[in-house]
Write a structure and sequence with these properties.
This protein is an all-alpha fold and 224 residues long. The protein has two domains: 52 residues; 139 residues, no CATH class. Helix content is 66%, strand content 0%. It is elongated, with a radius of gyration of 23 Å. The two termini are 28 Å apart.
Length: 224
């Protein structure tokens, strides 16, 4: 058990941190939501009912979609885009999808390679892009969920102000939707750009996200 915990500690620690922060967000979000209800002279709600509200759903999904957009763009972008000196970039001569031998697919697959890496046709093509496709799918689904929950939350606020609700398509064109969306996108894109550039010159000993401490600044695609 101890060895299993060590071998899976990265996923376990971040998974637990996710659950704890989501719970904290729910607690703080309910308190803020009830404060607004009190201002509007409405009855406050309990914790479990708050978890089913569109306000909680939109706050969660708008963060999820921006995170998965970051991963999707980074996974696909780093196939061709390079950053000299960054461990977040491939080596400068490896831009593109690389050869079958470099990727260990088809006739170059080993006994330990995934079965679909050695397959022919659509299975290898699909598996070769499966990570990016899954990230893109999660992004699109969470963005769709954000738009639906956002419509309900926005209309709830309008009804409390005795205003007529709007349709989903109208909400997609609203400032509220794009303000929620773009404020998350810009922060994710800034984080990726900062990591790619700062890792050229700065180091973190022992981290695979950093080059070895003594590696030259111009070394590209080398991890510690």
């Amino acid at each position: 058990m101890r060895r299993w915990l060590r071998d899976n500690s990265l996923g376990l620690v971040f998974g637990l941190a996710f659950v704890l922060t989501l719970a904290g967000q729910a607690i703080a979000g309910r308190a803020e939501f009830n404060q607004q209800l009190a201002v509007d002279g409405l009855q406050q709600i309990g914790f479990l009912p708050y978890l089913t509200t569109s306000d909680f759903a939109v706050d969660v999904t708008e963060n999820w979609q921006s995170e998965y957009l970051q991963f999707f763009l980074y996974i696909f972008g780093t196939v061709y885009l390079l950053q000299r000196g960054s461990p977040e970039s491939k080596e400068l001569h490896k831009a593109g999808t690389e050869t079958d031998q470099e990727q260990q697919v088809g006739e170059f697959a080993t006994e330990q390679s995934p079965r679909w890496a050695a397959a022919e046709g659509w299975r290898r093509t699909l598996y070769s892009r499966s990570l990016g496709l899954v990230m893109a799918s999660i992004f699109l689904l969470s963005w769709l969920a954000q738009s639906i929950a956002g419509t309900a939350a926005y209309n709830g606020e309008r009804l409390r102000q005795l205003q007529a609700p709007i349709s989903w398509s109208e909400y997609l064109a609203s400032a509220d939707f794009w303000s929620r969306t773009l404020q998350n996108w810009q922060s994710e894109l800034l984080a990726v750009a900062s990591m790619a550039i700062l890792s050229v010159y700065l180091r973190q000993r022992g981290s695979p996200e950093s080059k070895p401490v003594g590696a030259p600044h111009h070394s590209t695609g080398i991890e510690g």
